[in-house]
Amino acid sequence: MPTTTSLLPPAAATPSCSRTRTRSWPAAMAEAARAGATPPHRGLPDEIFIWEILVRLPPKSLLRCRAVCRGWRSATYTRGFLLAHHARQPTLPILYCYKLSDDEDEAECLDIIPFDHRAGLPAAEQIQSAARLAQASHLFLEASCDGLLVVSGGSAQFAICNPVTRQYAPLPLLSDKPFLAMYPYPPTGEYRLLTYPCRKSTLTSQVDCYVFALGSSQPPRNIGWVGVGELNFNATSLLFRGSLYWYLWQHESESNKIIVFDTTTESFRLLCGAVVPGCHELFEMDGMLGMSIFNMEGTVIDIWVLQQDYEREVWTFKCQIEMPVMEIRAQCGSHEDFWNVLVVPRDGELFVLLRFAGWLLQVDMNGKLVASLHRKGVGPTRLQLKQTLVPHAFFPTLEGYVVNDFPFI
């Protein structure tokens, strides 16, 4: 893994408050010129080489390029470049992989793997670990936002980390207020945590939620609660168009609801879901809110999308994916009934990732088994990772903050 000095800029980190390129390439190259750097390719304009080539590289490749010359190193450390570089990175579904001990009684480490499903990539490059964490038997991935991950378990009940820069810090404030979501607060760009004190089991119970800004010295702030239904806290939130979405589980009720949290006003509201029985998951596809609904056997998946007119709350059936059950069981040599299924959008289409009997399998929209990998301990999560080298000022303010140290391996 890269060393600490190659990952973080020598200057103090600045707050995360903008998602646009704040400095132009001439300013970045002016810094390089003042440093006495000479571009390694004199025939290629600096604007093209830095803002069209280096900005598109994966983080690990960019780190290696920093060693080429002082000009590249200086230009690629600027905040404007790092924000532009982050914007160019693909958003990929996260796989987990537990490495078991010799006696297979417990997991020794956890690999965090962005599944690069883009067309044209060799199979060996599709599944590459972004980071490896110790104490894997007690670690779980809870949330992902702009390349940052919230994990639970281990020596700290909750913690935040950047798998690329290998920064890690405990979040003791969540010890008595279980974690619900992490999101960027649009007015300031700071990252905030949404928590709740406990789970209520009745439909009439009201639970107050709390918001905490990372790096703030202020205590968590009570923002109230939507006050209806029981939120399926095991579900992962979906950040879509500046709001967080969760499917609302209402036992045997046929009235399916979605809880929406506006990250700007920090208020809750309800949205009607597609009234179809089954297991519901939310995703984003082509700028629209999508819902996948699995039948109880996990053999058929219905795909619905919410039309642009959100006020009417009209869901439209898009397609149905029939899983090749017999083919999968024959290939995996198992007749188990447990399926861990995830619908993933890709280039205007969908595919299905599923973990079954020690296999990771990929099925296309036509229900065709297109890829399989036999790897024990690997499986899909409902999180996505958009890797980043952007520095965040809140990390050093958190007690227990470390870089390139335990629990990273």
Structure description:
By secondary structure, the protein is mainly beta. The protein has 2 domains: 48-81, no CATH class; 89-403, 6 Propeller (Neuraminidase). It is 14% helix and 37% strand. The chain has a 5-stranded antiparallel β-sheet, with no helix packed on it. Strands 12, 13, 14, 15 and 16 form a 5-stranded antiparallel β-sheet that branches. It has a 4-stranded antiparallel β-sheet with strand order 3-2-1-25, with no helix packed on it. A hairpin with a 4-residue loop joins strand 15 and strand 16 (267-272). The chain is globular and about 55 Å long. It starts with a helix and ends in a 6-residue tail after the last strand.
How do you describe this structure in short?
Helices cover 14% and strands 37% of the residues.
In CATH terms, what is the architecture of the largest domain?
6 Propeller
Q: Please indicate the count of domains.
A: 2
Main sheet specs: 5 strands, antiparallel
Distance between the termini: 9 Å
In CATH terms, what is the fold-level topology of the largest domain?
Neuraminidase
Regions with little confidence, pLDDT below 50 for 5+ residues: 1-37, 200-204
In one word, what is the shape? Answer: globular
CATH superfamily of the largest domain: TolB, C-terminal domain
Give the helix tally: 8
Mean pLDDT: 80
Q: Please give the share of residues in helix.
A: 10-25%
CATH class of the largest domain: Mainly Beta
| Alpha carbon gyration radius | 22 Å
Fraction of residues in β-strands: 35-45%
- Secondary structure: number of strands: 26
SSE-based structural type:
mainly beta
- Order the strands across the largest sheet as they lie in space: 4-5-6-7-26
Pfam families: F-box-like, FBA_3
Protein name: F-box domain-containing protein
Organism: Triticum aestivum
Region (Disordered): 1-22
